[in-house]
Amino acid sequence: xxxxxxKSVVSILTSEAKVVLAKYKPKIIVVTGxxxxxxxxxxxxxxxxxxxxxxxxxxxxxxxLGVPLAILGVENARSxxxxxxxxxxHGVSLILFRQKYPDWLILEIRASRPGNIRNIMAWLKPDIxxxxxxxxxxxxxxFFKTPEALLREKGYxxxxxxxxxxxxxNVDDKNFEYFKSISRQxxxxxxxxxxxxxxxxxxxxxxxxxxxxxxxxxxxTFKVDYQGNSFPVSLFGILGVQHIYPALAALAxxxxxxxxxxxxxxxxxxxxxxxxxxxxxxxxxxxxxxxxTFNASPVATKEALLTLRELDTKGKxxxxxxxxxxxxxxxxxxxxxxxxxxxxxxxILVTVGLRARGIAEGALDEEMDESKIFQFEDSIEAGKFIxxxxxxxxxxxxxxxxxxxxxxxxxxxxxxxxxxxxxxVRQGK
Length: 429
Description:
With 429 residues, this protein is α/β, with parallel strands linked by helices.
């Protein structure tokens, strides 16, 4: 009965969303990929919001249920029947009465199961499709037979573009040629490959400030090359190439709409990415936390560890890594690969979860000192443990899949835990 009601609600809301799109005719930007979907969506919103009437999907509205909710501009009611009725009534109101509606929508779409994107693209025809990096083993691979099957699922988003649409593709991703080959519309590229990417990133580095003789990371800086000109960009409070790619993708969307690139690069300096995405936080005992707790995939965890390895610090480098979920048969191998990298990127490794034991094994295989590796089943326990290992100048990377709730680890070691609700992910009801 419960499943029947859920399918009925999805059917009703989807029907309403179709009619709303037909009535108001907004232009639609869709974002998919494995790494940085939400950061890319938010960066696009930041750059387009000053010039266009635009709305983005919020929080987790990226599924076959979430997309209609985003189009209608209502929230996920979960188990609240009254709120579901209100959502349906709101949809009816949008259809029957002319209301203020955005000219553009930015929607984030994921492929958790076979058919997710295909089913949505059967009725949603985007104007712009943005694909973020997928990597060798994309997240959500667990329910697909092969990485190629997941790739084809995400490909529906690109092949379903409206006539005259635009595909925004990452040239650095190994799947770039596939997406380019299936796009029947115009393609604009972004990435770090000089003479290949139309929106090209270059000369990235970490920003530091001096504090009592210690170098404290404050953000990242890079240049954007476009049509023979170079534009400097600085992003504050965050680290990692994970934030440069979303910025490049957002600039690609912006130039396609003839928005001045100088104004956009200036706007990026005030852009605030969402919590839990390589955010720099103050830790207890004058330490620095890199909070990357929103989620975890092999490619994103690899990039986080590479950033940790690159950091210039006199203190210890500590990685606290939780399970990476939804990897299916690739889980053991991918955790061990991450462990091998962690062994050379950090001085102390803490793992959280059963799958993350593979990270510890991978680090041991690379001859990391066993006395520097600690394993836990609970994120809070790991946070309490590491408190006694911290000293001034240490940098702590915390990352793991959503279900591991690694933000609890961050809360245990942050300098101001009273700010957790505004700084950390998943702090609502």
